[in-house]
Amino acid sequence: MAQAHDGLPPLRDIVATHELAPKKALGQNFLFDLNLTAKIARAAEPLDGFTVIEIGPGPGGLTRALLAQGASRVVAIERDPRCLPVLEQISEHYPGRLEVIEGDALEVDLAALSRGAPAKIVANLPYNVGTQLLINWLTADVQTPFWSSMTLMFQKEVGMRIVAAPGSNHYGRLGVLAGWLAHAEILFDVPPQAFTPPPKVTSSVVQLVPRANPLPCDLAKLERVTQAAFGQRRKMLRQSLKPLGGEALLNGVGIDPARRAETLSVEEFCALARAI
Ligand code: SAM
Hints:
9 strands; Rossmann fold; 2 domains; single chain; alpha/beta; seven-stranded mixed beta sheet; Helicase, Ruva Protein, domain 3
């Protein structure tokens, strides 16, 4: 069997030997291209001295890149038990540097894994739970985030919603939340054929870094405002925000009631959240 750069067998051989036929229900679109996995790992550098948390290591392509790139401690959470023997093999190859947790990332408290050290989350996320995971991590503790960066693969359309600015069609609840708590940017796109099996759409690697001083604002209230405003995004705010105070609320914070949700800045949404 041929060897990859790191001395472990090539990923395609591993998937064949362990019969890891990709499962759609688990969002399994694997990356076998070592240049691409290395590019994602490099984008998250520096890795040494951080707890690197990876969601869904699968057959371990990105995990291996993170370790080869110098991550001193990787904690990987994988739901598919079929992948565990492969991950065990990687762990033996890099003694003491990889911990694997079998479980559902939606249920795992990532903050507890970081052991008080800054954590970097790096993942080719399962597309069916990716957005919910991001929201969970962003909102875990808005004042003191446990993560110092997130470098994450999403479907491109989701990536565009995360980084969207006011005025864009992609701007909505997710963009306001991400914009309030983080600086977010799309680093690069990844075409469908880079994955096995190829998904239907292009993907994007998005990087988020927490804002040092997010605007004072209550999360639950901000969500009430953005839910009402974007729930009827074509309507004027005097109409969509009627249940929360309508014109009086908007006039109180100096926002023209004839404006629509997608024109409001994150600062204006926070002002509304403070006023309700
Ligand atoms: N990291 C691998 C790669 O890049 O080739 C696999 C990425 S694949 C897009 C997503 C991975 O997440 C799969 O291995 C899947 O089994 C795993 N997964 C799906 N849902 C999960 C969940 N709720 N918690 C943890 N892992 C999950």
